[in-house]
Specification:
- The chain has 101 residues and is an all-alpha fold.
- The protein contains five helices and no strands.
- The chain is 51% helix and 0% strand.
- Helix 3 crosses helix 4.
- The radius of gyration is 17 Å and the shape is elongated.
- The mean pLDDT is 91.
Length: 101
Amino acid sequence: MPRIRMQKSSGNVFLDMGIPRAKAVHLQIRSQMMIELTRLIEKNDLTQKAAAKLMGVTQPRVSDLVRGNIDVFSIDTLIEMLDCFDVTVTVTTRKRRRRAA
């Protein structure tokens, strides 16, 4: 049986997939906000139609959100959608640790 080589995750699946760092960080931020929006929709037992009305978007836009179509959402748009649920977005920065050689 062939041996499977495993590598420790960086904590960012997009970076682990070989996507350039800046793009990978951007995708991770958007995906985290999309996950939170989906949780809020489910927690509030909203239909896609009701969620769309609350956020001032169309139902197909909400469908894109819950299906994870990350490429059609900007960070700004996601922040505006989260604001409709009275959620504040905060940013935390920290210096990246260098990997051991």
